[in-house]
UniProtKB/TrEMBL annotation:
The lineage of its organism: Bacteria, Pseudomonadati, Pseudomonadota, Alphaproteobacteria, Rhodobacterales. The gene is rsmA. It comes from Ruegeria aquimaris. This is Ribosomal RNA small subunit methyltransferase A. Its EC number is 2.1.1.182. It is found in: Cytoplasm. It catalyses: adenosine(1518)/adenosine(1519) in 16S rRNA + 4 S-adenosyl-L-methionine = N(6)-dimethyladenosine(1518)/N(6)-dimethyladenosine(1519) in 16S rRNA + 4 S-adenosyl-L-homocysteine + 4 H(+). Signal peptide: none annotated. Residues 35-210 form the Ribosomal RNA adenine methylase transferase N-terminal domain. It is an enzyme of class 2 (transferase).
């Protein structure tokens, strides 16, 4: 028996359903149910929330979320081999788990979820960053989700919470911190997974702010930040010269020295520059 419910241990589930992890799907399974329950707790009080989970695999985190009281879970799984194992979990938690077989990049989850909504996932490595950027850049804010509790490679997690002046600071930090509170809440070594990945992992918790931290046009801010960090070794007057002929004057008006590089510029200053370019 596992420690959190009456279902079999995950190693037994994986053996029964012959679920060897596939590299092509970015799969690395967490088998310690006490650990998956610990990750689920980082998502906060789930008793009145629907939860979106991407890439549940054999259902380790799914069981953790259910055991921690999630009202209802929508799990999107691309690998059809995992569906029988997930069906067993749905049977053990009647009416609380819906599983969709498909690609999370192509499915609109809102047809199946009732607010308030939280997202919690051990994201497949090959789509994790793309999904995060989508969740951070909807056309309207606040978004459909209250919080994101997501597993990433440690390097990606550090990019999300990075501060100006660090090597990890870049577009992902700006996108995340403009609209959310971000923090790393858990670190996991490679040996926590089957098979062990080559890198360490970390869980990041992002809480949506009611409105962006500083006023700025989202499209302009995104373009400025992309251009600045695409040529992060260049001074901003060179990296951003394609945006407007008078970029030096605009930088100065926003309180940024034209000779600074992107990694030295704060989120607040990037927003000031976006407003200046919006005039």
């Amino acid at each position: 028996m596992s420690a959190i419910d009456s279902l079999p241990p995950l190693r037994e589930v994986i053996a029964t359903h012959q679920l060897s992890a596939r590299k092509s799907l970015g799969q690395n399974f967490l088998l310690d149910l006490n650990l998956t329950a610990k990750i689920a707790r980082q998502a906060g009080d789930l008793s009145n929330c629907d939860v979106l989970e991407i890439g549940p695999g054999p259902g380790g985190l799914t069981r953790g979320l259910l055991a921690e009281g999630a009202r209802r879970i929508l799990a999107i799984e691309k690998d059809p081999r995992c569906l029988p194992a997930l069906a067993e979990i749905a049977e053990a938690y009647p009416g609380r788990l819906k599983v969709i077989n498909g690609d999370a990049l192509e499915i609109d989850p809102l047809a199946y979820l009732t607010p308030p909504i939280r997202i919690a996932a051990n994201l497949p490595y090959n789509v994790g960053t793309e999904l995060l950027v989508r969740w951070l850049t909807p056309s309207d804010w606040p978004p459909f989700w209250q919080s994101l509790t997501l597993m990433f490679q440690r390097e990606v997690a550090e990019r999300i919470v990075a501060r100006p002046g660090s090597k990890a600071y870049g577009r992902l930090a700006i996108l995340a911190q403009w609209r959310a509170e971000t923090r790393i809440v858990l670190s996991l070594p490679p040996e926590a997974f089957t098979p062990p990945p080559k890198v360490s992992s970390a869980v990041v918790h992002l809480s949506a702010l009611p409105e962006p931290r500083y006023p700025a046009n989202a499209a302009i801010l995104s373009r400025v930040v992309a251009a600045a960090f695409n040529q992060r070794r260049k001074m901003l007057r060179a990296a951003l010269k394609g945006m407007t002929p008078d970029i030096e004057d605009r930088l100065t008006a926003a309180g940024i020295a034209p000779t600074e590089r992107a990694e030295q510029v704060s989120l607040e200053a990037f927003c000031a520059l976006a407003r200046e370019l919006d005039r």
